[in-house]
Amino acid sequence: MVKVLLHYINYRTFVMRLRGSTLQPFVPSPNSNCPPGFYAEEELKPHIQRPLQDPTAPGADGKAFEPRWLTAKERKEFDQGFIKNQFNQFASDRVSLHRLLGKDTRHPDCLEQKFLRCPGLPTTSVIIVFHNEAWSTLLRTVYSVLHTAPAALLTEVLLVDDASTDVHLKTHLDNYVQQLNIVRVLRQRERKGLITARLLGAQAARGEVLTFLDSHCECFPGWLEPLLARILENPTAVVSPKITTINRNTLKFIKPLPTAYYYQRGKFDWMLNFGWEVIPEDEKMRRKNETYPVRTPTFAGGLFSVSKSYFEHIGSYDDQMRFWGAENLEMSFRVWQCGGQLEIIPCSVVGHIFRSKSPHTFTNASSAITRNKVRLAEVWMDDYKFVFYRGNRNAAAIFKENSFGDVTERRELRKRLKCRDFSWYLKNIYPEAYVPDIRPVKHGQLNNNGWKCCLDVEKKNKKWEPINKFKCRNNSGAQYFQYTSQQEIRLSSRIDLCLHATAGRALVSLELCQLKGKSTTAAPEQVWIFTQTNQLRNPSSGKCLTVSGGSVIVAPCKSTRLSQKWAFI
Ligand code: UDP
Ligand code: MN
User: Fold this and answer.
1) In CA terms, which of 11, 424, 461, 487 is 20 to 30 Å from 383?
2) pLDDT at 517
3) To test ligand 1's pocket by mutation, which of 84, 130, 321 has the most ligand atoms within 8 angstroms of CB?
């Protein structure tokens, strides 16, 4: 109780400090009329009770919906829905907007977790941005919030339209949500992407905490309270639920397993792509029970809660990023570097329809994402940005042409908040990451003197292979390598891939580099000594990197052999 009270005082003083002396704290002070004890079930009742559900209806209890056969007309509807959304809209349209998700399968520690009524959890605005979302997925997201979030904690649901063109999302939506009272639609006039759409929602929000969701989610029972409780406990925590999959073909909601001690967290690669990985052992050990947050180096960025004042304090978003992409890594680096924490709260479970590609059209999609990445690298990554530029020709061009827009304000934010540098982040927040040379010993295209060709890589049977077929082309990421301080030859655009000489085999392959994370020496199969005679000798085979026709092999070293002479150009 004392601990919680202290948290409460921390949170309120923190909020006061952030907002300056003119601002009032959000909720009554702790000594005001708030009865002790835990919230009773009654007090956490949702805004709208779920209507009675038919357990045999399509997708009931989170089950898959898989009709045996479709008429020609249905087939057409199915196909069109899939193309438009990249998920099975046909199924979604037939699953109840109010469906239950079946038994609460979370870990028992989660089920036992209780929340003190005093000082009380902060209130939240749920912000859902959308662009041309299907009606059924959007409304199922809304209802799933209204059926699960305690009414006392839910200030509002804000739907932010990123200039959709679908008619069902216009007046029909406005009229429909009016009857739900607590739901409002905001509109971004111009299509600018999810970043500015979320900012629009954040500015309008009246809750103490902002909770962002994608427009095709379903919330598992009890998802909101653990997020809010963590923010109450630590106002600088930016918290994500455990995101589970709603199958895009069948709408099956993959339920959490009570036995899953094996968690995923967010990672990134040096091309600035987000990904998932299993949490390391020491993070598993640090967590005393399942209610503990999982610290995560990066987050997926679509589903999370953050104190509204902290969101503003920490620089919300870079509003000059366009459309979609990289804003999650930007926020991840920023939160950690500027003193916040990024966490996944396993007791909070929300389902999301993951798709294999985006159904949305953007003008110059890939260059917009690359530009976003350059902006983030320029502000947060210090000289590590060069690692990214070396592997991404387009990013390097944007950097060189200075066409990533003005980042002065973001750099000033970094200074104002006295944020730490990127090497601190790598060392302290992501010590498992492989840290490439900021400036490798040599890098560029690897030109073979004998064949006047550049070493290239090609994907064959799902595996990358070094080849020697092409003239040097400076637009191809597949021809750029770096010679590292550990004497490896890494592909710059996939810095985790190394030239590898397998024992007893002439053909050289491209394998995952064995030097990664905390290890300090490279595997002998992946070491290449650059000799005085410009040969690349692999000590494990004692042989030299050689071009033989279209292939790249190791062969006995002969200092006169031109097909063994290499230069980085
Ligand atoms: N979105 C948006 N404008 C865009 C692209 C996406 O408002 O230009 C919305 C989209 O409707 C969704 C969220 O932003 O609610 C995240 O996009 P999406 O689901 O396509 O990304 P994913 O989850 O597949 O990474
Ligand atoms: Mn999504």
Assistant:
1) 487
2) 77
3) 130
